[in-house]
Design a protein that fits this description.
This protein has one domain. It is elongated and about 75 Å long. The protein is of the alpha+beta class. The chain is built from three helices and five strands, in the order H-E-E-E-E-E-H-H.
């Protein structure tokens, strides 16, 4: 009985030390993690909308299709004039993806960039490769975004393809709404 109590106390001590250590490490690294995420976002904004010289957050709430969340909308500006928007949207694919979508004020997609894609390596991860994602560049917002019509699917990853299309479609609608409303919705 004494042996069990002793082992229980030792286990409780190790657990307490581990919890305190994890809390300290989390506290020390949270700033660096946040700065890295902001740097990745800024680089993504510039990649998706290379013609812009500044980005400002759009005001308001933006709605999306079921399963898609609009995380943020940024107004793309050049010389103080709004020339488009960049939308950060997250949604279901086979697992989940967060995508930046740039759209000009004349309803053309400038580019897309994946901030995260947690789908299956070798299949769903192919969505982030140029062979798939570059087919959205230059598309009009008026296009169907339909598999087999104007979008080629990723072989073996139909669910991922449909999820990416849903995210991009919702992002385009929100981006156009932001441009139409002058950055506020």
């Amino acid at each position: 009985m004494k042996q069990m109590i002793k082992l229980g106390l030792i286990l409780a001590l190790f657990t307490s030390v581990a919890c305190v250590s994890l809390a300290l490490v989390s506290n020390f690294t949270s700033g660096a993690i946040e700065r890295a995420a902001q740097k990745e976002l800024n680089e993504g904004l510039r990649t998706v909308f290379a013609d812009a010289d500044a980005f400002s957050p759009a005001q308001g709430t933006f709605t999306a299709a079921a399963g898609v969340t609009i995380d943020a909308v940024y107004m793309a500006e050049k010389g103080g004039t709004v020339i488009g928007s960049v939308v950060q949207a997250t949604g279901s694919t086979y697992d989940k993806a967060t995508i930046l979508v740039g759209i000009t004020s004349n309803k053309t997609i400038t580019s897309i960039q994946f901030l995260s894609l947690t789908d299956t390596p070798g299949f769903g991860q192919k969505a982030a490769e140029p062979a798939f994602k570059d087919q959205f560049t230059g598309k009009s917002a008026d296009d169907n975004f339909a598999l087999g019509d104007d979008i080629d699917a990723i072989s073996g990853s139909t669910i991922t393809t449909k999820g990416v299309i849903a995210i991009i479609s919702s992002a385009v609608e929100s981006g156009l709404a932001a441009i139409h409303n002058g950055g506020s919705n």
